[in-house]
Amino acid sequence: MLENMKKLIRYYEDVISLNHKQEIARELRDEDDLFLLLLYSEMLGIPNPVYYYTLELYPHMIEEFHDWHLRMGMDKSPLNGIRCC
Amino acid sequence: MSAILVAIAGLIVFALGYRFYSKFIAEKIYRLDPDYVTPAHQYKDGVDFVPTNKYVLWGHHFTSVAGAAPILGPAIAVYWGWLPAVLWVVLGTVFAAGVHDFGTLVLSVRNKGQSIGTLANKLIGQRAKMLFLFIILILVLMVNAVFAWVIANLFITYPASVIPVFIQIPLAIWIGYAVYKRNVKMLLPSLLALGIMYTMAILSSGNTWMQIDLVRYMGGEEAAGLFGLGSVATAFFIWIIILLAYVYIASTLPVWKLLQPRDFINSHQLVVGLGILYLGLFLTNPEITAPATNPGADTSWLPLLFITIACGAISGFHGLVSSGTSSKQLNKETDARFVGYFGAVGEGILALVSILAVVTLFSNADEFLGAYTSFEAAGEIGLGNFVEGAAGLAQGLMIPQAVATTIVSIIVVSFAATTLDTSVRLMRYIITELGSEYKIKPLTKTHVATTVAVGSTAALVLIPEGPQGFGSGGYLLWPLFGTSNQLLAGISLLLVSLWLKRLGRNYIYTLIPMIFLLFMTMYALFQQVVFQWAWWAEGTNMLLFIFGAINFVFALWIALTAFAALAKGDGDELPK
What we know:
The complex is a heterodimer. By secondary structure, chain A is mostly helical. Chain A has one domain. Helices cover 68% and strands 0% of the residues of chain A. Chain A contains three helices and no strands. Chain B has one domain. In chain B, α7 (127-157) packs across α20 and α20 (478-502) packs parallel to α22 (542-568). Chain B is globular, with a radius of gyration of 23 Å. Chain A binds chain B through residues 9, 11-20, 22-27, 29, 67, and chain B through 45-48, 50, 52-53, 55-57, 59-60, 63, 179-180, 185-187, 190, 255-256, 260, 263-264, 267-268, 329.
């Protein structure tokens, strides 16, 4: 009985928070996009003083980078250095 | 006649509709495939495309489509007697709304989760896009204007509801911040907020000083108000200005700050409201006192009944939700039957109990007919009667009359306020889109677009000759609300029919509701435009004439395109 009650409450909470989770995820993704833009600011012609270090992140973020440039409306990788596609 | 019998009969038909008709549609017509990779999996991005449990998705879908509209329409339509309204809600839900909501969901799932608007553009062409946007613009403008008046009216009639409703705003902002910044779970804070609101409702129902009654402050209904207006008109004016200022702020804030936390609280209110109504109905066992039909009606039920009850029987708005968000979150294609069809059934259940709340309110048929003297009067008193009727049912749960009335009015105001927020936001988006389409740069700015949205709403709402007195200018366009909404449903059903035809399946099950809807919409529009609003008719009204004529031409165009497309077997743009 108690278990069912807990299940019901969990279900109810999932229903009302569905919208909200989406909004939080969107906000986080926008922040991530901004972060990537800061890392690859050379794209906009802004010299990046830490490019040497950001390069080290390359293997970790290549997949994410691919998703990012697709989301930003660029079909192909905008950076010569990163050939994800 | 016992209201419980009608409710049980309605619920049985809903259950049979879901059990057998939707199963037939799912297996034989839409032929759902459990192995089909849905957009939620194919384009999974953790934001828009997220595979979601079907029960959770149903709950979300239902709370998105249920609001004040399935209460308002039935409360007016009982004017023709309870039987036509109940029949249309029950049969409309089973044979039209269910198939429509379910169909738009499946069509969108089979088309990368694209919305009905995008699909309609592909099919009907770019030329239609502007007209399509125009129809939606009228739709949201009407919603803004009517709901602003409805809320002001409820505040004036039930002044005890003002403080509990306004206290929801700071509570919602607090929840928004707590959840967003501190990652607190939202269930408990939102329940706490609801508790505070209802405690305030109990306190304000018993204490006159806690009731913000503007009319009383000005010295009663007969007293003079500001600017040469009477006290009631002044109260409407003040509330409408406050509401418009509020929606301006609310619709420009990020959704997580105010709109979403308010939605959590309102989801509880939907559950509370449905619980009160159905429990009250079964505990009080009220008699239906309204007549089954109203032979002395001044306006014929055909075709207006099918336009007056849109949400609750069939509504094009549901197709926008089905294809806009739900289709991107569907885990398995076979879940579409539960989410889409049963979502429509949920709305039907709400509309059914709204009808029963109103038709059990009066002590006998004469009293009912004395209140519902004309179709226009029905529009004026419908919602107030729902509040009183629902409060009557709530008394079965030992809730005192005054408190029950306040709580029901809070529920209705909360739903109406959320609708108002959302539709002002929607109007802002449309204005921005028109601005970028026609390269009018200022319109693409948030505050300019919101000012245009709120300004045009204010202009419409404050037209001096509104049918229900000052501030009710939105009601001038209300007859067009139902027609625009049904037109949208007709377009969606057309798309589903074309898709089915292309697959070589039997499309009669979507074609018949489509023909019925388009016919009723055009019939109603033609009747109103030619015999009521035109300059040669009695009730000349140029505003309605112009908007109505545009709607009619658009409806006719859609119908012709539909039949041409079906005859030619168009729809190549639609996927298999």
